[in-house]
Amino acid sequence: MSDSSPQPTAAFDFDHPPRDPVETCLAWFEEAKRHAIPNPNAMTLATVDADGQPSARTVLLRGFDAHGAVYFTNFQSRKGRAMLAHPRVALLFFWDILNRQIRIEGAITPISDAESDAYFAQRPRESQVNAWASAQSEPIASREALELRQATFLAKFEGVPVPRPPHWGGTRVALECVEIWQGHPYRLHDRVQYTRLNGATIPAAWRVNRLCP
Ligand SMILES: Cc1cc2nc3c(=O)[nH]c(=O)nc-3n(C[C@H](O)[C@H](O)[C@H](O)COP(=O)(O)O)c2cc1C
């Protein structure tokens, strides 16, 4: 981090870490939002497919609490198929300007239809239509072909609310392993890893380890 970089303010004492990582994650998400970072809620989502092939892409965090981290996607996409084959994922946040990283690993479950419906309902209409128009991860011949699909669905839903596609919705990642990372000069970074000890039970019990950088 250069001298002119904004200094993080949400205190985290790596020698005396809190017993639970949730409040820290929330504080760090809020702090990222306060800086002029485009998409402070962007995270890398890593999946493993049926053949054991890992893949990663960016998605947006849309919810976070003790029950887990929520993102929305197309369940028929490449990641959707991988999530079905191996319902465990890893998430990674990196805020360069704060020299911070959060890693999350855990089992995934779909959120309820009601929760996905509620989220979908407040999306811009164009995004709702495009969730139907885009067969995410499938080949398409051209931009023109994509726009034609968009026009088809715009016409189909003209004058009526756009329903949520059944293949699109939210996924919750259980907080089974959470790592809080603060960078320091010359690689002497601070890391604390939280490993969940009591499955999905709330409140969670955690093993807390400081890790070498
Ligand atoms: C900043 C950013 C945010 C994104 N947010 C999402 C998202 O929330 N959900 C999603 O399905 N794709 C999102 N994408 C697109 C994905 O990175 C990816 O291209 C898409 O989901 C297809 O991935 P797949 O073929 O591995 O399934 C986002 C991309 C970027 C760059």
Please characterize this protein's 3D structure.
- The chain is of the alpha+beta class and 213 residues long.
- It has a domain at 22-116 and 167-211: Electron Transport, Fmn-binding Protein, Chain A (Pnp Oxidase, Chain A, Roll), CATH 2.30.110.
- Helices cover 25% and strands 32% of the residues.
- The protein contains five helices and ten strands, in the order αββββαββαααββββ.
- It has helices at residues 22-34, 78-85, 113-121, 125-133, 143-156, and strands at 42-48, 54-60, 63-65, 68-74, 88-95, 100-110, 168-173, 177-182, 190-196, 206-211.
- Strands 1, 2, 3, 4, 5, 6, 7, 8, 9 and 10 form a ten-stranded antiparallel sheet that branches.
- The protein is elongated, with a radius of gyration of 19 Å.
- The model has no long low-confidence stretch (mean pLDDT 95).
- Flavin mononucleotide binds next to β2, β4 and α2.
Describe the structure concisely.
Helix content is 25%, strand content 32%. Strands 1, 2, 3, 4, 5, 6, 7, 8, 9 and 10 form a 10-stranded antiparallel beta sheet that branches.
Largest sheet: 10 strands, antiparallel
**Helix fraction by DSSP (H/I, runs of at least 4):** 10-25%
**CATH fold call of the domain at 22-116 and 167-211:** Pnp Oxidase, Chain A
Oligomeric form: single chain
Q: What is the CATH first-level class name of the domain at 22-116 and 167-211?
A: Mainly Beta
Spans with pLDDT under 50 lasting ≥5 residues?
Answer: none
Number of E strands: 10
